Amino acid sequence: MKQSKTRRKRGVLLTSVGLKRLQTAIRAVEIVQNNGARFTLHELSDRVQVCTKTLSRLWSLNASVDQRTLKLCFNTFDLELSTEDYIIERDPDFDESIEALLPSLDKKQIYSLLSITEGSFTKEQHENLEYCCSYPDGPVSLDSPLYIERPPLEKLVYQEITQPGCVIRIHAPREMGKSSLVLRLLAFAQQQEYHTIKLDCDQMDTSCLSNLDQFFRCFCWRVATELGIDPQLDTYWDKEIGSKLSCSFYLKNYLLRQINCPIVLVLERVGRFFEYPHIAQEFFPLLRSWHEEARQDTNWQKLRLVVVYSTEVYVSLDINRSPFNIGLPVRLSEFTQQQVEELANRHGLKWNSGKEARQLMSLVGGHPALIRIGLYHLTCQSMTLEKLVKEAMTNGGIYRSHLWRHWEKLQENPSLARVYAELVTAKQSISLNPMDTSKLDSLGLIRFEGDRILPRCELYRAYFVKQLSNIM
């Protein structure tokens, strides 16, 4: 009689959330107890009393360890292990088609990619509707099963971020998924043991944007602080050569020189700088110069830039000095019907005939945020699809906050409101001024169908026909 094979006890995998918590705690100890210097793998092994091989498995996020080991690591750095820090091991299937698509990645990187792109959408999470019953506001968290890929964008950005001195430009209107993609790109970078920094330009004080020197000092201080390095700005700042050169020398000769691994620097909402032309005209060409220097300088090659924006360039930039025509351009598209059906199924809805998806998309197209808001109300608010469609265009409908925000933007720009009023009431295609087209596109109010410019969806057309009727 053949003896049955003993089932191996499953281990646990550290999640990206858990890794971030652990990295932050380790960094705090390094600053206090190790003069800010990074612990080597052997030093960490001595502290935790776990072999280096086990720690390497833990950092990879794709190899399991036993839960007691993970708890020991957390306790060493005064952290309490929580359920969000790990998931039960699943058997990864290595997709050789991805290896063929991304020849520049080694196997470790491809496994890391798979752990993100395939995501943590497991049967257990599907049955747990807490993800679905949280109102869809902001980026989709890393551990949520509700993130929908838009191939091949995810795999392309993972590949590009491994290239020395790269620049990735992510451009799309608000609520199209830029921040959700950035979260996954940063998680992938962390799995490669890169340093990651995310700067939200909206968080910068107006005082820092009123003066060029103050802006560059603020920028350098923030980067150094995020890296856990004593800024020492006064030591490296030279008024004789100006703030731009001081900024470049500081990054190259002070920060990058002492960092041994790549640094992924994400600049979110850089459109804010367009409101300060004196900043934009100096800072943006500098970004391009760093990218060009990386072709021959190993220090600059460590810097990987990700620029995220929803606003087109409204300042005068020489085409040869602009960073908006270099690197990998990424434009996020709307969901397809198949993707809408997949997202509906992840909400627990059985949309397999295509009828329901087409009905919702006839109202909001494939707009990610509007689709998710609709599915939330269908799943958690006991609303029928028929009622959703019927009430959507009213001021009391489920999309009221979204529509009011667009309405406020148009009220702030009466000339643009008149242009949009003409567009939503036109019986056939009309021509628009390129600047107006760019502004409406940045707001997410239009879509392109060949040479035609149309309202983004029926919801917008019907709502704004009514709202803008007094200026037609």
TrEMBL record:
<protein>
    <recommendedName>
        <fullName>Serine/threonine protein kinase</fullName>
    </recommendedName>
</protein>
<dbReference type="InterPro" id="IPR027417">
    <property type="entry name" value="P-loop_NTPase"/>
</dbReference>
<dbReference type="Pfam" id="PF14516">
    <property type="entry name" value="AAA_35"/>
</dbReference>
